[in-house]
Structures are given as structure tokens and as C-alpha cells.
Specification:
The protein contains five helices and six strands. The chain is α+β, with helices and mostly antiparallel strands and 161 residues long. It comes from Zooshikella harenae.
Length: 161
């Protein structure tokens, strides 16, 4: 696992958005965050033929609250198969730790992510000049209404990777 590979995918997908939001990606800070996520088993990824297609990182905020640090899918791989594989890994972890709340921050200029969060059922809990804080209640993950999650997955065309 090469952490630079994750950084490269992030820059490919989020560099222009981060710059537009006034928060360019800091390689050193970012690589440190990835390393921390890996050490705590909170780095979830999807590979095909040894190529990183997607990944997400989570951070435990305590008391059942989990923060989505990163959620990145290669632009050419934004389809149902990759999305479902990544989400399965995240949900499996959230169930194992008995998560109650999922928190995520999104730059306002990242319109695709704003729509994505709404489709998944996240609610805006705070707003700042450059972005939103979203939360999703996970009252009982075993009975989680995954229809919203799978609804979004159905939006991706079914292509092979």
C-alpha cells in the first residue's frame, strides 16, 4: 500500500475544488492523516488489477460519532460496482463499532458532493463561509434504511472496472 497513490487520487479528484475553496491540499498533513487512518483500521479502499479506484477514511470522534475524513472515487470509476464495494466496507466497520452518528464536511464549491450527501440522507447541521457540516443519524445500523444508500448506488451506470 503506497500512501502516495492515495494522495495522487485525491489530487486528481479534489485539487481544483480545494484550491477554489481556498484550502489547497497540504501533502504532508494529508499523508499524516492517511497514515493515522491506516493505523486505526479506518482506511477503506477498492482496488482492481493493483490500481486504486476509490477510498474513504473515517475518524472516531467518540460516543458513537464518526467523521468521514475522505471519500474519493476515481472519475472514470464512479459507478455502481465501485461505490457499493466501498460503501459495504464502510458500513461493515460502522456496524462493528456500533456507530450512532456519521459526520462529514463539504466545501460549498463541491456541488457533486453536496448533492451526494443529500441523496444519502445527510442533514446540514452547521454552515460556514466555505462549507457545510453534514450529519447522518445511524440510530440502529442493523436496521438502517439502506434504500437511500442504494438509491444513490443505482444512479451510477453499471460498468465493469
Amino acid at each position: 500500500m503506497n500512501m502516495k497513490e492515495y494522495l495522487d487520487l485525491t489530487k486528481l479528484t479534489l485539487n481544483s475544488i480545494s484550491i477554489e475553496a481556498g484550502r489547497p491540499i497540504d501533502d504532508k498533513v494529508y499523508l499524516g492523516s492517511l497514515g493515522s487512518a491506516k493505523k486505526t483500521d479506518c482506511l477503506f479502499d477498492v482496488y482492481n488489477n493493483k490500481k486504486l479506484l476509490a477510498y474513504a477514511t473515517l475518524k472516531d470522534l467518540g460516543e458513537g460519532r464518526w467523521f468521514v475524513l475522505m471519500f474519493v472515487i476515481h472519475p472514470s470509476c464512479r459507478h455502481k460496482k465501485v461505490f457499493i464495494e466501498l460503501f459495504y466496507k464502510i458500513i461493515k466497520h460502522l456496524i462493528s463499532v456500533k456507530a450512532k452518528i456519521l459526520v462529514s464536511n463539504v466545501f460549498k464549491v463541491n456541488k457533486r458532493s453536496v448533492v451526494f450527501h443529500k441523496k444519502l440522507g445527510f442533514k446540514v447541521t452547521r454552515e460556514a463561509d466555505i462549507g457545510y457540516e453534514y450529519t447522518l443519524a445511524l440510530d440502529n445500523l442493523d436496521n438502517l434504511d439502506t434504500s437511500k444508500w442504494w438509491y444513490w448506488a443505482r444512479k451510477f451506470p453499471a460498468k465493469k472496472t
